[in-house]
Amino acid sequence: MGSLHRASKTLKSLRHQLLLQATQQFDSSSRLSGSSDYRLLLARALCSHPRQNAKEAVDLTQYPPERIRNFSIIAHVDHGKSTLADRLLELTGTIKRGHGQPQYLDKLQVERERGITNLQGSSLDGSNEPQPFLLNLIDTPGHVDFSYEVSRSLAACQGALLVVDAAQGVQAQTVANFYLAFESNLTIIPVINKIDQPTADPDRIKDQLKSMFDLEPSDCLLTSAKTGQGLEHVLPAVIERIPPPPGEGSGLLRMLLLDSYYDEYKGVICHVAVVDGMLRKGDKISAAATGQTYDVLDVGFMHPELTQTGVLLTGQVGYVVTGMRSTKEARIGDTLFHAKTIVKPLPGFKAARHMVFSGLFPADGSDFEALNHAIERLTCNDASVSVTKESSTALGLGFRCGFLGLLHMDVFHQRLEQEYGTHIISTVPTVPYIFEYSDGRVEVQNPAALPSNSKQRVTASWEPTVLATIIIPSEV
């Protein structure tokens, strides 16, 4: 009896500590948001069911499609989208305020250094009295090299926050990302950020957004993600303006594969959006593109780390572990569905197009196997890099790699050095050329591969071009 009494007392003490912590988080969030309409769902759950480290499965059945909002943040680089994502995560209690790592969704050192955010997602618990909402936030990169990742994010969303710097105004990727979202028929919420800057001119930015994108000035939200000013209006706008995800909950399962990465312990982890039907742990699913069948070993959502739920319902965005051994099996834009069912595949994405090619060689020829291992490991999490082995008379054995752009190439090089300690020599980047002979065409990615003693005469040569729109200020 004494042991039971002590155990009961310990549980009561733990419950009290959890409630106190949740209350403190709620008070902090309320002060930041300036509104009591947004309560921490986690705090409410702790009040009735105290749990340690949130290991208990989250019940997603309380979120029907009409109470789900899938949205993205799009912006030009350094306009504050990662900081805004941090504040939204804090507002909903997904992470603690002052968590110690700015740009929480930027996992890699090189991403934080260069302002790059690869496809990252998180599910937020937002409560709009009297019922809670599930808000799925997918952050996006701002650099032009990663525009295809923006399209992956937008495919899972019904709306987007278009973040514009209150001083810099509309810039190149603002235009590009707006039209990506516009072509996807997303609801666009303009957010003028960094209004705390001395050079901020929100009225001028409103006029820009009206003249270029026909976005009404009254629809613009004025915020400062740094100070928290105006953030209390962002989540209500997401819930009120962005429509819920479409889909048939009682229909056959169809999931859109958004992204994948390799984990040493779990294997390939796929990020998916459930368009129709329901997925449960233990189901058998097939991939439309490859025809392969897999067992669902784990399923859940990002909150912001992987959180097991055992189920994903229509309209929800989460992760699936299936035992895939390589990300090459997880083709971005593929449709996943229950095995032995017949469904119409979802429209996929455009394949990543390599724009720049460069040779990578070990600084020391004896380090070839180490470089080979490092590239294999790194490409597990970056399927947008093409790799083929090549040999150079001057540099020896190496690799010919295709990248999305110069920045993508620099980031890949930097990750090889930072994460694997490799020392590399890279050749001058080139673009692919097409040479036309009398009997056909040959694509050349490496100038050394161009036949020098060919008896056939080159009748034409082709190089990549781009149709560009250049926007300049009316006054300089």
TrEMBL record:
E.C. no: 3.6.5.n1
Family the entry assigns: Belongs to the GTP-binding elongation factor family. LepA subfamily. Belongs to the TRAFAC class translation factor GTPase superfamily. Classic translation factor GTPase family. LepA subfamily.
Record's subcellular location: Mitochondrion inner membrane
GO biological process: positive regulation of translation; translation
Sorted UniProt keywords: GTP-binding, Hydrolase, Membrane, Mitochondrion, Mitochondrion inner membrane, Nucleotide-binding, Protein biosynthesis
Residues spanning the membrane: none
Protein name in UniProt: Translation factor GUF1 homolog, mitochondrial
UniProt main location, coarse: mitochondrion
Pfam families the UniProt entry points to: GTP_EFTU
